[in-house]
Amino acid sequence: MADPPGCCSACATCLLCPYSCQWITAKKEKRKGLRTTKYDCSWFIFLFCVFLFTLVWLYFAIIILNDFHNFNEFIFRQRKLWLDWSLVLLIATAVLISYSSVLLVLALCLQLCGQPLKLHWVHKVLLILTALVVAAAFTGLGVKWAEEWKSARISLQATGPFLHIGAVGGMTLLAWPLASFIYRTRSAGLKVFLLLMYCAAMIALYLAPLGITSPCIMEENQLPPKPALVGHRGAPMLAPENTLMSLHKAVECDVQVFETDVMVSADGVPFLMHDEELTRTTNVQAVFPERAALNSTAFNWTDLQQLDAGSWFLERRPFPTVQSLSPGDRKEAAKQRIPSLEQALEAAKQSNISIMFDLRPENHSDYQNFVNVTLGVILQSGIPLQQVLWLPDGFREDVKQQAPGVQHVYGRKRLENEKEPELHVNLPYQDMSSEEIRQYRQDNISVNLYVVNQPWLFSVLWCSGVSSVTTNACQVLKEMKHPIWLLPSSTYFMIWIVADCVSFLIIIWAFVLMK
């Protein structure tokens, strides 16, 4: 196989060595008889497929970062081991995508230089392992975290236009090595097959925007108001969750609602706590080692007040933002204790923000008494009842009778025969489409979606017209004055046509030039 003009023998040798794992000298006679066989072509196609497979997984890995704190909490509850698994995920994904990318680039350069694609067996084994690892990751995602498939679909509303341009650009660049291969191969059937496949792929990409929809493709004057922020357990990236410090940090982030979780102690005192056990967010294993595995409601208020609810935040660093805390904030965080509902209501009243909470555990045998005790604390606190947003479904009618001013928030969509005059809905962001959000907004139904941490997701929901979002990252979303991107439909149409035309001209030029 002859070297094409401009491909020096040293470069060809340097490309062959890492790809074939053999040092083949650059002399033509030493390479005489080496050529790319159909078997080699099949391995190149497999390499290209593995690259695309890992690229798709990289996209998923970035998307699920919005919800990865939930995964960290799940692992802790199962294994009592705290680790930011998102770092493990990103590092492993980066290694896989880097490996397949380097091999693919080497193969394309070898093809342009007219060199044989003799992939070494070590690379073949590693590529098969890469494909199996990514397939296992997708399988695990589908089995244990199926809602993330919905997250991926939503993400396409934010990334679709840009993925289209990137895909068109990438496929356009493939025209050079494809043209080189077609002009060099002697198999007419293979030539026709590759050309048809490439043309079909490009036509599909050129027409892809016909199927791309995004709520952010709109005129500037059609943009709905910015969604209000609801602090998920306060501001858990800036302070220990479900503490008074977290509430105050949330107020600094301009949140309108402090979202929390309430449990009732063994002696009847409602307090803030999310987990059924105290091990994740307190030092209960050090203070009460023999009782650490008990339900949070098994402790009386005196016992709960002895627990440190802040040091874990500094030690485990549940979010990367912990590293950037000031010395004053670190000192304050270390002093945090489990707050009672009464203390939280007083702080919310003084800060003039609403408080929304779940009452846990819902399956407790004494749940009705929990409801009555919690209601009693609310009524005695003096907080305006319209600032209290009630989430629990159990004994809701009793709550309406005893505290008619409390706002009720429902974890469901509206019913066909909806009887609530002012419906407030609180749902996972995966459970509502942009069309449903728009319809609810037109019907004056308040929609709060949780948990929204990433700016891209906040932008999509903002463009859709959601009323509010529950977030861990109030300090990030507070600074957003505008969605990440907003394009009038006419502008997007022009970008689409220009990108496709430029791509088509470059492809024609590549085939003419390579010939």
UniProtKB/TrEMBL annotation:
User: Molecular function terms in GO for this entry?
Assistant: glycerophosphodiester phosphodiesterase activity
The source's superkingdom equals Eukaryota
Topology relative to the lipid bilayer, per the entry, is: Multi-pass membrane protein
InterPro entries in the record:
GP_PDE_dom, PLC-like_Pdiesterase_TIM-brl
Answer whether the UniProt record assigns the keyword Acyltransferase to this protein: no
What's the family?
Answer: Belongs to the glycerophosphoryl diester phosphodiesterase family.
This one is known as GDPD2 inositolphosphodiesterase
The root-end lineage is:
Eukaryota, Metazoa, Chordata, Craniata, Vertebrata
